[in-house]
Design goal:
The complex is a heterodimer of chains A (183) and B (367). Chain A is mostly helical and 183 residues long. Chain A contains seven helices and no strands. Classes of the chains: A mainly alpha (183), B mainly beta (367).
Chain lengths: 183, 367
């Protein structure tokens, strides 16, 4: 029995007949790792990312009775993770939140200190990404990590498709400039 | 596909591989009764920094005519008398919403032209009109970035004003409607490149190049368009500095012609958003701690543009949500971002603050 299903008896009863906890457990098994990875891309460190994802699944659990179309659940979770990541970063600071290491947070996964990924070029690229605006980071992550289309990204971030396109283009230009100067 | 895009995919995959399933802590639902609560899954959009100052006496937009707006003056001290703005507008995707500034009631919703999406807005003419921007194809497409004039209450209240070259990231307008300032990336070899800060003033365009030490944001023009304030968000220069550029400066490097007003100390607060007073002589600047270990408090202060002297601290708050947006009419500032679901009002004379309107989920506001 897993952590989620232990609480199944107290969960609400969705239309499908399974308990909320069972449904959430199944969703977590299928999407939990992916959501943590998405959150890491946005907040930098794994413990914070796990907290963000925990809150996202808890939010889904609490609002399970309102879910009419389970086909939209993954989109709900992604939105909750993106919003949770924003909140986590706001509590640390503004645009530079990913660039400054504080004692209470692990270093970003891509930092040399974390020693989690190989290649100085990759670390430099992620450091440059961390310096972009929040919206640019989100668009790049959804586009180049999740491979979402512009319409999906627009719906998740509640911006227009053309804004997705222009934001991505400007972010790539900014990264190109920064990396050229570094090289 | 280019080199950076390939590298991004490769690097994201490397980061993904670094997060191994066995390292993730087990999730735990809270013990006890879990009665479903009314949880909303509606995302609250982080705000883009769009700032507009409204002068007391203003006239029609003259971006296309090439002639100065007749009778336009920058009111010293910008103390508009009685009348506040006529309308409040917000970008609530996919619409531009026009509201009654007193009641908050939505008076109209305007969709963008087919195939476009709204990206930004600015108020002119005492909040009676708005300039709204559609995002288009950055390079060479048949959908350029375009600014429209939105006149609430008019049957055909939306008409194109100007088409801007390249990829436009942010724009603002002077209260008299005679000057437009924007951040653009001009096209080179079919891709956006060469970032510039552009100004269209009385029909003439001028731009300044942006070295890597300058990455402006939070643009704000004085009422007559003569002065432009911005915050520098660069990683490689003076991050969080607030500067002013005379829009009559010769073209060239933005860094060369800008005058610093607020320069952060190494560990001190950084500028995050600003608005210029109508006369361009006072800057209202929001600062936030650079060090994340410090309690998250933001402060709104007034600075003398000529000397850089902090004139007074107006208001401080904690619990910020997103990049702040300020709009002001010279006596009051509305700040979006103090709290999650409200716009708050700060009296620029006394510094007192109160909730102006419950209004969550919108991207940016103009007043």
């Amino acid at each position: 029995m897993t952590a989620f299903s232990e609480q199944a008896a107290t969960g609400s009863q969705p239309a499908s007949g399974t308990t909320a906890a069972e449904a959430i457990e199944a969703l977590y098994q299928e999407h939990g790792l992916g959501m943590v990875r998405l959150a890491v891309m946005l907040v930098g460190d794994q413990p914070t990312a796990e907290d963000v994802v925990q809150e996202a699944f808890l939010g889904l659990y609490r609002g399970w009775h309102r879910v009419r179309d389970q086909g939209t659940v993954v989109a709900y979770l992604r939105t909750a993770v993106i919003n949770g990541a924003r909140s986590a970063l706001r509590s640390r600071g503004r645009r530079n939140a990913l660039l400054i290491k504080a004692a209470q947070h692990d270093p970003p996964v891509w930092s040399a200190e974390a020693a989690a990924i190989d290649g100085e070029d990759r670390r430099a690229l992620m450091t440059a990404v961390a310096g972009l605006t929040q919206r640019q980071r989100e668009v790049l992550t959804l586009k180049y990590y999740l491979d979402l289309g512009e319409n999906e990204i627009a719906a998740l971030l509640r911006i227009s498709r053309s804004t997705v396109s222009s934001t991505a283009a400007r972010a790539v230009t900014a990264l190109t400039r920064q990396l050229k100067e570094r090289e | 596909m280019n080199d950076i895009e390939d590298r991004l995919r490769d690097t994201y995959q490397a980061v993904e591989r670094a997060i191994r399933p066995e390292t993730i802590r087990p999730r735990v639902l809270p013990a006890g009764s879990e009665r479903p609560r009314s949880t909303r899954f509606v995302p609250l959009t982080a705000a883009a920094a769009v700032i507009a100052v409204i002068a007391g006496a203003v006239t029609l937009p003259h971006l296309l005519t090439g002639s100065p707006a007749p009778g336009t003056t920058a009111t010293p001290g910008a103390q508009p008398a009685n009348a506040g703005p006529s309308y409040l507008a917000d970008l609530n995707y996919p619409w531009i919403e026009v509201r009654d500034p007193v009641t908050g009631k939505v008076l109209s919703r305007t969709q963008p032209p087919s195939g476009y999406g709204w990206q930004g807005l600015a108020a002119i003419d005492g909040g009676r009109k708005f300039l709204v921007e559609t995002a288009g194809d950055p390079c060479g497409g048949d959908k350029p970035f375009r600014i429209y004039l939105l006149t609430p209450g008019k049957p055909a209240g939306l008409r194109p004003v100007i088409t801007l070259p390249g990829l436009i990231d942010e724009f603002t307008a002077s209260a008299d409607g005679g000057t437009l300032a924007y951040l653009a990336e001009q096209c080179k070899n079919g891709r956006p490149a060469n970032p510039v800060l552009g100004v269209v003033r009385n029909g003439a365009t001028r731009d300044w190049t942006m070295p890597s030490s300058v990455n402006p944001g939070s643009l704000s023009l004085s009422a007559d368009g003569g002065e432009l304030g911005y915050v520098n968000f660069t990683l490689q220069g003076q991050r969080g500095a607030a500067s002013v550029l005379s829009t009559s400066s010769p073209p060239g490097s933005l860094a060369r012609w800008s005058r610093p007003v607020f320069v952060p100390t190494r560990r001190g607060p950084q500028g995050v958003a600003l608005v210029l007073n109508a006369d361009g002589q006072t800057m209202y600047l929001i600062t936030a701690p650079a060090n994340q270990s410090v309690a998250m408090t933001e402060t709104l202060s007034a600075y003398d543009v000529a000397t850089g002297t902090r004139l007074r601290t107006l208001h401080a708050w904690s619990g910020v949500q997103g990049q702040p947006v300020i709009v002001a009419d010279g006596t009051h500032a509305l700040i979006q971002g103090m709290h999650l679901t409200s716009i708050d009002e700060v009296n620029l004379g006394t510094g007192s603050a109160a909730t102006f309107r419950q209004l969550g989920g919108v991207m940016s506001v103009a007043w």
